[in-house]
Amino acid sequence: QPALYPGTHEPGGWAVEADGEWQTVEAADQPFGRVRTGEPGAKLSFVFHGDAVSVAPACAAEPCTGALKVTVDNLAPVTIRAGDQNSPVRAAPAGRDPENGPHQAAIEVVEAPASIAAISVQRNEPTWPWWVLGATATVGALLLLARGIARVRQK
Fold first, then answer.
1. Taking the mean position of all CA atoms in its chain, how far away is CA 97?
2. 20 to 30 Å CA-CA from 98: which of 26, 29, 43, 54?
């Protein structure tokens, strides 16, 4: 099954399925040189591997209006309005360790015109391997130090 992996992706990319009315509008100031603009009820669906997804809203026309509802798995949807900062929608509630996927995501237009410039997938690598490595190195250094002190005392 096609999926998005960590990085920034075009909302009209090969792994993104579109339902409803969508238009591609040229926008030289956006990351991919164009944005995807949808009518109410239009939806983009995709699978991603990571622990968060960000949607970069864009303004294809003035006044800059519109709203998108972003849903990940079966979690409560997050509404993003045109002009909002690109904020990640986590794949798990705060305090729970999100798995790196696969996750099902949907972006639905709830107020038109709503445009999307990019979809970004983030994956925070686990820190526990570094803690284990650091603890092992510290214990090893302490053992070597203790051994050296014991040798000095023997002489």
1. 15
2. 43
- For residues 89 and 78, is the Cβ–Cβ distance under 8 A? yes
- Alpha helix stretches (DSSP H) within the chain: 128-154
Where are the strands (E) in 13-129, listed by range? 17-19, 22-26, 34-38, 43-48, 52-58, 67-72, 78-81, 88-90, 103-111, 114-122
The pair phi, psi for residue 4, each rounded to 5°, is -95, 135
Give the CA distances from residue 10 to residues 33, 48, 107, 115, in Å, rounded to whole numbers and listed in that order: 10, 13, 13, 12
Q: Which residues contact 131 (CB under 8 A, 6 or more apart)?
A: none
Nearest to 78 by CA among 102, 100, 57, 99: 57
The residue type found at 57 is P
Give the torsion sign (CA, 104, 75, 31, 109). Answer: positive
Q: What is the pLDDT of residues 22-67, one digit of tens each?
A: 999 888 888 898 999 999 999 999 999 988 888 988 887 777 788 9
